[in-house]
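Protocol step 4 of 6: structure prediction from sequence.
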Amino acid sequence: MIAFAGALGVIMSLPGQTIGVSAFTDPLMEAVGLSRSQLSLAYLIGTIASSLILTPAGKMYDRFGSRVMAIVSAIIMGTVLILLSYSGTVTENYAPNCNIIIAMMAFGFFVLRFSGQGVLTMSCRNMSMKWFDHYRGLVNGLQGPIVALGFSMAPAWFGSMIALWEWNYTWRYIGIFALTVFVVFAWVFYRDNPEDCGLKPDGAAKHSRTDGRYFSVVQEMTLRETRKTVSFWAIALTLSYSSLFVTAFSYHHRAIFSASGVDVDNAIKFFFPAAAVLSVALKIIGGIMSDRVSVRTLLYIFATGHLLSATGLLLLDTAAGLWITMLGYGINGGFFTILAGVCYPRLFGRRHLGAISGLSMSMIVFASALGPYLFSRVNDLTGSFKSNFFLLIILIGILIVFAARTTNPQLKLTGD
């Protein structure tokens, strides 16, 4: 039940995720009188600002636990959604100038991204991972399809709700739902640690598993100790790279396909559904695998997926390019949550997981804000998106070197 509750909590964060916000972009632009670039600037400022305080939020998670932090973040997210639903009314009645509107929307996005994409996601994901040890990867893999289904359905859900109730009432109703239904749900079902309930991780004091080489936590490492390890930076930087790439590609995919001479509509109909199916399958397979292989191996697989994506985009004007890109994109989607959820408690322990994952989440959110802008700037400067893909290959090559140096610090402490 904990695993299922955690997955539903991540889905509840959708209004604060880029895929959730994007459904409201066009009606919001019209309502507040901003251009697409102006609203994008407000979103960029809000996202970067939210990333800067996620590490302190992670430390608060370590102090107060998943139950309190999930409830508080849901209350904040629900409140800001209700307030944002009145943004059109405010600008219409009080007619502030453009800069004030941008600042107002940037603040709204800051609170929304911080509470939804940041704290709520972190709290729900960490709770599930703290309740399992030897079966952490399996649980993560089983959660994957539930979360993936929710995220893949988000554009259709929000689009239908906007068509039925209009954008402002849709945000208002989602906010009320978060403040009432989800808050009660989290209060009833969320618990921070199995030990608080008189239980052990995985529900038993002893495990029949004998391949626990990568799972024994000898020392609960602090954030300061964790930052001194190559392993943390290898994982965090690779996840940040993935966030940068995925948000940039998602934002510019139509222009990228069009520039390569690909039929955009047909490519989209094939690419994203095929990548989603592969991603869901790999979430399950990768989750099971992650209980049996080293973090270094998981990083190699993840990095290989990104290498395939960048190479496929370079070859997008050939017959094989779209297939290679789709394969890499599917691998990325399948292994992202595994790296983000499984690796940190395995290598560094559970006691300071909030601070550690908070720093990682801060980097991920910051990179997601920069991705679309960097792709645009490189394209403007060079006249081609291909320069981005060469740069991606160089970056992922550097990250593979980091992956090669990744070790389990717990093994050093045991002398293995």
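Step 5 (inspection) to follow. The domain at 217-409 is CATH 1.20.1250.20 (Growth Hormone; Chain: A;).
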